[in-house]
């Protein structure tokens, strides 16, 4: 395993070095039956807290997060594929692993380990802030193995699929992994070269014996997960984490995106509903973010995925995000993040975030302030 980790990191570093010299590693045979492109990324993060609580054991830190290496391409004319693995927190795990059949430019069928059409985590490299918003971190599920139908037109996107609730990285071999039904519909009444108006809804239903826990976390990446300030939905008596087994629950999301040249506004409402100990719980929250290009002409939007994209090279972006999570009897958390992004090239950008988080749980109140910076390399 140690040799595998060293080989993985050495290959990633070599590939990034080649990329920064403007040479993309791509193989495309003359007959177009098969193509292959090497892809990857790594994040170098650093930050510090301005106020510290002795019980949290947090201060400052530097981390290399989420280093990935993979390949993607096409084969037999109508087929696409992607295989990506990740080295993070001293472990190697799978990320995107799928094949996709393209009936034509509008209709597609995809099978593999993928994100469902929910939340902002599918943005990956294009995520505008250093870390996910708390509500998205809490409610957006991890990748799952599933079969998905995708439809893309100028004004409409739809994806719907059935997934296993198992996780290919946790070594869980039990037969009954549960099932997830997920769908997302997007309508764009306005889309042209300068303006986008995007409205989306995403319901999801889960019936699974796997435990689920809702957790609020300070959105930062420079300390270890064990030390990151967090609190959890508890049972109202002794503060124990709520994990519910052998049950069914639903998640839902409504979203709006508006782009007008240099300006971007985006908001999401996410929620979940489940029953525990004969009580019905509703948890959820809202995030709203906006950004403006101080240098650059146009915010980028991907019609195929229905997601915002990074600004173009040599663009300078300022941004702000407010995020509120309500865990019902488990307390609530609100955080405000402001940031600056500069995109030096297609393969290298830097991000600076300052965040203020307030946690409330009965008589328990804490406020955290932290600043962090990220250098992101990708190819």
Structure overview:
The chain contains 2 helices and 21 strands. The protein has 379 residues and is mainly β. Strand 1 and strand 2 form a beta hairpin.
Topology overview:
Blueprint: H1 2-20, E1 26-27, E2 34-49, E3 60-75, E4 79-88, E5 91-102, E6 107-114, H2 134-139, E7 144-152, E8 156-164, E9 179-191, E10 195-208, E11 215-217, E12 230-232, E13 247-260, E14 263-276, E15 279-295, E16 300-302, E17 307-309, E18 315-326, E19 332-345, E20 348-361, E21 364-378
Antiparallel strand pairs: 1-2, 2-3, 2-21, 3-4, 4-5, 5-6, 6-7, 7-8, 8-9, 9-10, 10-13, 11-12, 13-14, 14-15, 15-18, 16-17, 18-19, 19-20, 20-21
Low-confidence stretches: 232-242
Structural class: mainly beta
In order across it, which strands form the biggest sheet? Answer: 2-3-4-5-6-7-8-9-10-13-14-15-18-19-20-21
Oligomer: single chain
Give the tally of β-strands.
21
As a percent range, the share of strand residues is: over 45%
Order of helices and strands: HEEEEEEHEEEEEEEEEEEEEEE
């Amino acid at each position: 395993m140690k040799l595998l980790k060293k080989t993985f990191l050495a290959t990633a570093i070599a590939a990034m070095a080649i990329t920064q010299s403007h040479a993309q590693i791509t193989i495309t045979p003359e007959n177009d039956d098969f193509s292959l492109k090497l892809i990857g990324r790594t994040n170098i993060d650093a930050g510090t807290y301005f106020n510290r609580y002795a019980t949290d054991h947090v201060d400052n830190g530097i981390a290399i997060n989420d280093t990935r290496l993979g390949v993607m391409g096409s084969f037999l004319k109508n087929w696409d594929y992607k295989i990506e693995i990740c080295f993070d927190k001293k472990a190697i795990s799978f990320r995107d692993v799928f094949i996709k059949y393209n009936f034509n430019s509008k209709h597609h069928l995809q099978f593999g380990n993928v994100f469902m059409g929910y939340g902002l985590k599918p943005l990956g490299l294009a995520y505008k802030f250093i870390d996910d918003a708390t509500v998205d971190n809490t409610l957006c599920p991890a990748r799952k193995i599933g079969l998905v139908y995708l439809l893309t037109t100028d004004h409409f996107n739809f994806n719907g699929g059935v997934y296993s609730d198992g996780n290919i990285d946790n070594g869980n071999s039990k037969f009954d992994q549960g099932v997830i039904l997920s769908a997302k519909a997007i309508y764009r009444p306005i889309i042209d070269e300068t303006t986008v108006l995007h409205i989306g809804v995403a319901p999801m239903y889960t019936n699974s014996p796997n435990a689920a826990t809702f957790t609020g976390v300070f959105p930062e990446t420079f300390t270890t997960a064990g030390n990151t300030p967090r609190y959890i939905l508890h049972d109202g008596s002794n503060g124990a984490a709520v994990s519910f087994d052998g049950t069914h629950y639903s998640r839902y999301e409504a979203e709006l995106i508006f782009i007008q040249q240099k300006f971007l506004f985006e908001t999401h409402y996410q929620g979940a509903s489940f029953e525990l100990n004969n009580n019905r719980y509703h948890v959820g929250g809202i995030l709203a973010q906006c950004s403006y290009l101080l240098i650059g002409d146009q915010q980028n939007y991907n019609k195929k995925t229905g997601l915002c994209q990074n600004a173009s090279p040599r663009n300078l972006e300022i941004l702000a995000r407010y995020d509120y999570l309500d865990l019902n009897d488990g307390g609530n958390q609100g955080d405000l993040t402001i940031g600056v992004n500069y995109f030096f090239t297609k393969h290298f950008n830097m991000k600076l975030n300052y965040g203020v988080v307030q946690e409330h749980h009965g008589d328990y109140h804490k406020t955290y302030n932290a600043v962090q910076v990220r250098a992101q390399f990708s190819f």
